[in-house]
Amino acid sequence: MTRKTKTRSAKGGGKQDREAVILGLFREFPNNKFTLKHLASVSGGASKEGCRETFDILERLFDQGIVEECSRGKYRLTNSHLPHYEGIADMTSSGSLYIRVEGLEEDIFVNQRHAANALDGDRVEVAVLHKSRDGKMEGEVTRIVERSRKPYVGVAEVGAHQIFVKPDSRKMPMDIFLPKKKYPQVKDGEKVVVRIAEWALGSKSPVGELVDVLGLAGNNDTEMHAILAEYDLPYRFEPEIEEAAQAIDGRITQQEIDRRRDFRRVTTFTVDPADAKDFDDALSIRRISDGVWEVGVHIADVTHYVHPHDTIDTEAEERGTSVYLVDRTVPMLPERLSNELCSLRPHEASLCFSAVFTINENLELLDEWFGRTVIYSDRRFTYAEAQEVIETGKGDYAEEILTLNRLAQALRRERFKHGAISFDREEVKFRLDESGKPLGVYIKEQKESNQMIEEFMLLANRRVAEFCGRRKTEKGRHVERTMVYRVHDTPSEEKLDRFRQFILRFGHIFKATKGRAVAKELNKLFAQIKGTTEENAVTTMAVRSMAKAYYSTDNIGHYGLAFPYYTHFTSPIRRYPDMMVHRLLARYLEGGRSADKETLEKLCVHASEREVIAAEAERASIKYKMVEFMKECIGQEFDGHISGLTEWGVYVELDETHIEGMSFLRDIPGDYYAFDEQRYEIVGRSTGRRFTLGDAVRIRVKSADLRKRQLDFELVLPDAAPKAAPGRPSPSDEHQAPASHGRRPRRRH
């Protein structure tokens, strides 16, 4: 008897337990249909009594509207009791959705027919209709909780009685309707910015409201403003912001100088790109004794002019960062501040917040000082001018520059010795005419003059982070204080494994699995691939394998730099977190209490988000200029190498310019090619010809679509005969994104 009781209890026992098991089963497998016998069996036993109890439970659940009989003797959950979640919709070019739900590892897929007119960025309620054994879910949108107010940019097609806007974004696959009577000023062919006002069920197109008219499509200013609008980035300051900036008193009084440490008689200069207008950092140097130097890292004192919660500060906080497009900078601060008051211009006295280090040739920090200063910049160098001094040993302030470079190179070697990773990626730059049209492409190199500035900025950031984050008590103990850090987590094993498999295709072996050994192996690999065709592909994949750096009040250190403490202190003109750090440094220098962590963390999250958006806009502008440049090269042939593979085509990067385009598999002559995912190569069905990453190829420029910012290439195979018939169709609008095999991976920024 006892034994029987134990068995029954293990299976679910009482009616309450049986009901809970049945309900749990329905909810775990919402797409399944269950028989009475099956439910009885799994919930406690399919005896006569068990079946009767199960039937009573089902009757009760039926009366409550929880389950329904979908066919004779089979039961399932009613739609209203399916698992429901709330999340953000991410739309694909086909109109389908992936719903990102906080706390769920996998996104919920929603077919277009079940989308209920939900659009990208909408907050929606979704019911799970199907759940596979591996946990992937498919559902339908049951309610739009909050319609996204994100802007859409597109070209207006003006008819006799209506306006339709054809969006540039692939995340809006349908045209947007504008009432012509309401917006008579819109002209055919103009680029406009719209937001969705409503989209009634049964209507083919959403109704929009006009935000702005940018100008005729194809005009450079129009297209750059379109990119900014696409990412909801401002492209001008409101009049009240400009007025507030103009009202700031820029005079440096003697009283203000007396409150600061005076560096005006110390040799000081700036080193910046040739086209820079805002100079937010300068270096000073003087000899203390033989082999001992005082190096000052002087940063524009933005917070002297911009006070917490004033008009300009609120705007800077919202923007988070300056945005750098190919042909322009959209500053975080009005030009009155960024290019005038705060800019460390030559032959002018400037107010700074400084980190001053006494250092010897052995890189021992003999002393350090943080505080407000006044400086006088003796010279403005471009990176090229400073590099010439380094290479020739001659020129203005040659002794100072050579000394700073010698110390910087020693700091750099020391940093890599302690596990920093050398991500020296090539940067594509454009030569533009006055109208913004690209005349040429060149690769920007990182030389010793760049490294000289970089190393001292890193030193200042590191030491400010540690000073603010760790207060030393009178008893010698260290007490943590609230600080804004720039943090970078260790790479995940999963990403490292994918990277390991990736580089094997090029014959490279990556042995490290965790810890600083990863950094050592990466630096070794980068040295091996320098100058090879696979260099860019491997470096790109290595970057993707790393975690993303971000701002946080929780210090986990900076893995890539191998610093236990790190922050951003050196660019307050263009980054709001640097302004936050300046205020924290001032607070702690005055002996203030630890700042409110929760408030600062919210600002950190916002700044990190804005940084990602700004980077995406910058990449979009580069892509636009690449396509614009190649538009003049239709029909021309170039050498390149394969930089990526998908199930529908081959990415090719041109050797000379590093411009990337796609060649569709269906267009490759002489054979029908398919993507072998396991071997990561393209294989010809008849010839057996294979293409893989890094292969040298020759291409012909087929088309350049400025609206889609996409380049189409044709592979030129001299020994290949043209195809007799078209190949398998490929998605025409997807080739600017990586392949998604079955399920799209969840994006994490």
What features would you describe in this structure?
- With 749 residues, this protein is of the alpha+beta class.
- Among the domains are: 2-80, Arc Repressor Mutant, subunit A (Orthogonal Bundle), CATH 1.10.10.10; 83-146, OB fold (Dihydrolipoamide Acetyltransferase, E2P); 152-217, OB fold (Dihydrolipoamide Acetyltransferase, E2P) (Beta Barrel); 470-622, no CATH class; 634-715, OB fold (Dihydrolipoamide Acetyltransferase, E2P).
- The protein has a 7-stranded mixed beta sheet with strand order 14-21-20-17-16-15-22.
- Helix 3 (36-43) packs across helix 4 and helix 14 packs antiparallel against helix 16.
- The radius of gyration is 31 Å and the shape is globular.
- The model is unreliable at 1-13 and 724-749 (pLDDT under 50).
Summarize this entry quickly.
30% of the residues lie in helices and 28% in strands. It has 749 residues and is of the alpha+beta class. The model is unreliable at 1-13 and 724-749 (pLDDT under 50).
Give me the secondary-structure topology.
Elements: H1 2-11, H2 15-28, E1 34-35, H3 36-43, H4 48-63, E2 67-71, E3 74-77, E4 84-91, E5 97-100, E6 108-110, E7 123-131, E8 137-146, E9 152-158, E10 162-167, E11 176-179, E12 190-198, E13 207-216, H5 220-230, H6 239-246, H7 254-258, E14 261-262, E15 268-272, E16 281-289, E17 292-300, H8 302-305, H9 311-319, E18 323-324, E19 329-330, H10 335-341, E20 349-360, E21 365-376, E22 379-382, H11 383-392, H12 398-417, E23 427-432, E24 438-444, H13 448-469, E25 470-472, E26 478-480, E27 485-487, H14 493-504, H15 517-529, H16 535-545, E28 550-552, H17 576-589, H18 597-630, E29 637-645, E30 649-654, E31 660-664, E32 673-676, E33 681-684, E34 690-692, E35 696-705, E36 710-715
